[in-house]
Amino acid sequence: MKCENCQEEHQGEYGSGRFCTCKCARGFSTKAKRKEINAKVSSWNKVNNPSTYIEICCKQCGKSKTLRIGKINQVFCSHTCASKFNNAKPEVKEKLRTARLREIEKGNVGYGIKCYHGDIRCDSALEYAFIEWYLKDNPDAKIERFKGYLTGNGIKYQPDFIIDDEIIVEVKYETAYIGEKLNDKWKTYVASQESKKRLLKESGRPFLWVTNKTIGNKAYRKSLEKAKIVKLRL
Questions:
Q1: Residue range 173-223, pLDDT digits in tens
Q2: Given 60, 181, 207, 219, which residue has the most CB atoms within 10 angstroms?
Q3: What is the number of helices (H) and of strands (E) in the chain?
């Protein structure tokens, strides 16, 4: 026989045989209204047993939250606030930065390093590497983040840079591998590249489509080493 609550096979020795144990029988009868019952019990305890509850002020967002006395050491109202607080610590940032750089140097996709090249914001180490690579042969070039969007065919996207107020630049990590290694986010990233190329061509403006292969492996790795010493913003 199969228990109606836990779905485990049993010999039918308990009660009518619908459930394997007394615990499953009681659990089944309250399962549908479990959240409602828990809320009522919690509300009753807060009124009738106030000594078992404390109120904290979240260390990250400042919001107050009522907790059971057993969680007296808790200082955040949620996992989200705890993560935000801990990720802001210099030692945590350094640990994340080092790990991401290590993965990028291995050629793994999905790792970005937000940093600045002078006053230019770079959303990845590859963008930083592009600026280094381009300015080497064009030291007087004016490179800025692209402002605005390109639209067409139901697509809207913002290129990465613009050079001398004329040349649009899109920096992309190029990979020929699409499989189990890439999650859905990166499959979409790779699949969207052709649509973005088409928009750049239809804009009628000069553009550069830059990849890790365009920059060249040696120049890319050299720029990564420089990216390690700039102020990174994760």
A1: 776 444 454 456 566 666 778 888 888 888 889 999 888 777 766 666 666
A2: 207
A3: 9, 10
Nearest partner of 62 among 85, 44, 42, judged by Cα: 85
Nearest to 134 by CA among 143, 145, 121: 143
Taking the C-alpha atoms of residue 226 and residue 234, their distance in angstroms, rounded to an integer, is: 17
Quick: pLDDT tens for 140-164: 999 999 999 998 877 888 999 999 9
The answer to whether residues 167 and 208 touch, using CB atoms and an 8 Å cutoff, is yes
The predicted model scores a pTM of 0.48
Taking the CA atoms of 101, 105, 106 and 108 in sequence, report the sign of the dihedral they define.
positive
Specify the residue for token string 């750049």. Answer: 200
Tokens of 156: 């809207």
Rounded CA-CA distance 148/157 in Å is 9
Dihedral angle of Cα 121, 122, 128, 134, to the nearest 10 degrees: -60
